Amino acid sequence: MKFQFLDTVISSVDILQNSVLRLNTGNISQKKSRERLIEEHKKLDYFGDKNKYLVHTARSQPNLSLNLQHRISIANLQIDHKSTENFLLCRVITKFINISALLALVEDPDGNVERLALYNWTNIPKNKVEQMACRSIDQTFLPVGTKLVIKNLSYKVAADKNTIINSNNPDDVIIIDHHNDKLFSDLIWTSDLLVKKEIKGKTVDEFRCRGNDYFASKNYTAAIDEYSNGIKLKPQNGTLFANRAEAYLRLFQFRNALNDAEVVLKYEPSHLKAAYRKGKALCGLKRYKEAIITLQHLHQSLKVSTDGSISSIKQSTEQLLKHAKILDSENKNGQYDYISIINEYCERAKIRKDSKGNDEWVHEVGPRLDHADFLCKDIEICSIKGKGRGLIAKCDIPENTLLVVSKAFSIVYSHEVLGYAMKSHIQNDQTTCVASSLCTGELITQITQKLLEEPYHCQEVYELYNGLNLNKINKNLVNVDIIGNIVKYNSFALDNVIVESVNLSGKGLWILPSYFNHSCIDGNVTRFFLGDLMFMRSLRPILKGIDCQCRLCKLDKSEAPKTVHRRTQLLDTVEKLIKPLSNDPDSSLIKRLEKTIFELHDLRKEHPELEFDTLAPSKILALAYRENGNQSKALSILKEMEEARKWFDIVLKRLVEPILGKCMDDEDKWKKEALYLAEKIIPALNSTVKQLYNDNDNMENA
Question: What are the start and end residues of each TPR repeat (predicted)?
């Protein structure tokens, strides 16, 4: 399956390769050693495609003629620069692995090592004759020691933030053998291809020290590898398991961390750090009561201990135990300290420039907050005929009820993919569109990586609607096609979330809110975001069951199948027209879009106030007319949208109530918290309202 992100098409296999590379390579800025690169490459073999394909035949050129002055070393390659005149001389030092590209490590005569990706070398056979010629990519394909000349190469930063050499044309790769090696007869290769450092040559303590060094440099993936190699030599070494558990915690791999901590406690029940890390892992897994019991036992042990060196872990345990109790209360009772959460959010949302001039979070993970999910006891997830699984009311629910608080399963902020945060006063539709598309692609990749790291997450993710109508899904297998469609139908966009004039827009996947099957126009439920937390409250009484009686739902159910089908066709047409219009306001496209919007309006001419699907396209149509110089037409379209703007008259009220609930004038505490929240978040409100109400002024001044 292929996914379209603006002008870029990426296949599910490419997304899988990106996720696998991230999973197995540490994202660090310093240059990696030859040994570390080889270690990372070996781990890719587990994910390699072992199927047989038609493989391009690597060739040698007996009469090869090259200008040796154009030979470039790996050390001199430049990022995003395609070498058309220069060529790279290298030799293969690992076997090739087939994922999306054919991946291997190569070195140049100076001993510089880099990853190499060969694209377009394999094809699916079309007939029996081609099937007979198929082969798999194994150690016999361009085997270790093969010398290559690579022309027209490009040097990129891959999805795992590490560099890689790309070659897209098999004809640009030439084997250097006895037919043409005289060209390089004077070259001396500085490294010995046959020298290998075996694991058996190192001690457990050496692996521990190397792991600690990687951990100190925040390369947790490499640290885990070193600890794991030590564990192979001594499977009952508690220190290695405890250290690896902490490295897993830093990567938010809570199930793996828990497993390692429990192994330590099995052999060393009094291991304090292992008990602490077990409690932390249980919190991450949302098993709060077990975490509290574990930490209470640890706290008791620390209280009776006379060892003065444990004061730091004692303090950390007290803090974590207190936090675990807060999480348990949030999860069980829906009791949230909103003032504390708002302060935490605003502090963690701060952005600074890194050494390369890109925007990065001041806090390591940004506004990804550590708080518990909550599901109101009066609603439940169950199967709904014709609609899949969804949330329904078990009884009548009064207005102003906190229904759901959900932490994002995965979230991507715009500046994390753009490299810069969009300022609230300079954002535009094109930039927003690019950011949204990039966030979607990144979100699919991140979720794929998370499921590869800990496959048990597949169970909860695959329960969401995917639109593929599959009879059966293997819930233990990572399937990018399913993940991509789940993101398509269930992801939520963060729009116009402004903190200190910085737009923290993005996209995320929230599990519980995804079970709300639709949004009701009469305001059944409202939602609000604080960082990666989504709060959802009822805005009016919700009756028991699943039959919504809002005006929009009644209209949806009353429309004839022919009307529904035509409406779907028109909305598809709108989507196809909007993409090219974003880049080129062609007059013929403008007319087609206007005609399509008119027909959509006509389908609901009896209820024009419920035609909300045309609001966004109408704004794009107005902007297109403005770009074409037709200001009067643009203004007339915006005036037609005036009815929609009335919803923003109550935006101040909507700002506070999704979090704190209904405004109670006689409650001083509520008023104090509401004013504090508004003071923190109101710039976003002001920015949004001004933008919406000043559209006409902008048109007139353009």
Answer: 204-237
Which helix (H) or strand (E) covers residue 60, if one does? strand 59-60
Interacting residues of 625 by C-beta distance below 8 A, sequence separation 6+: 585, 590, 631, 633, 634, 637
Min mean pLDDT across 365-379, 579-593, 671-685 is at 671-685
Quote the CA–CA distance of 102 and 409 in Å, as a whole number.
32
Retrieve residue 569's tokens: 């066709």
Closest CA to 502 of 297, 350, 280, 690: 350
Q: Report yes or no: 281 and 245 within 8 Å, Cβ to Cβ.
A: yes
pLDDT digits (tens, 9 = 90+) for 154-212: 998 887 888 899 999 999 999 988 777 788 888 888 877 654 444 457 899 999 999 99
The H or E element spanning position 638 is helix 631-640
Provide φ and ψ at 55, rounded to 5°: -115, 130
How far from 216 is each of 23, 28, 270, 675, CA to CA, in Å?
Answer: 19, 12, 26, 43
d(CA 47, CA 23): 11
Give 92's strand partners.
106
Would you say 56 and 197 are in contact if contact means Cβ atoms under 8 Å apart?
no
Q: Are strands 492-494 and 506-509 parallel, antiparallel or unpaired?
A: antiparallel
**524 Cβ contact list (under 8 Å, min separation 6):** 538, 539, 540, 542, 548, 550
Sign of the Cα pseudo-torsion (460, 461, 466, 471, in order): negative
Long-range contacts of 350-354 (CB under 8 A, 24+ apart): 350/500, 351/415, 351/421, 351/502
State the pTM of this model. 0.74
For the chain, helix (H) and strand (E) counts, in that order, are: 24, 28
In tens, the pLDDT along 370-416 reads 999 999 999 888 876 656 678 888 888 888 889 999 999 999 998 88
Q: Could you tell me which residues come within 8 angstroms of residue 80 by beta carbon, excluding any fewer than 6 positions away?
A: 154, 155, 156, 157
First to last CA, the chain: 43
Measure the CA–CA gap between 62 and 628, rounded to whole angstroms: 59
Please report the DSSP string for 131-191 in residue order. HHT-B--STTSS-TT-EEEEES-EEEE-TTSSEEEEE--GGGEEEE-TTTGGGGTT---SS
pLDDT at 195: 47
* DSSP category for residue 513: G
Instruction: Report the b/e string of 390-420 with b at 16+ CB within 10 A.
Output: bbbbeeebeebbbbbbbbbbbbbbbbbbbee
| Residue that the structure tokens 């699919």 belong to | 444
- Rounded-to-5 percentages of helix, strand, coil across the chain: 50, 15, 35
Q: Select from 403, 399, 396 the least CA-distant residue to 547.
A: 396
Are 189 and 109 contacting, i.e. CB atoms less than 8 angstroms apart? yes
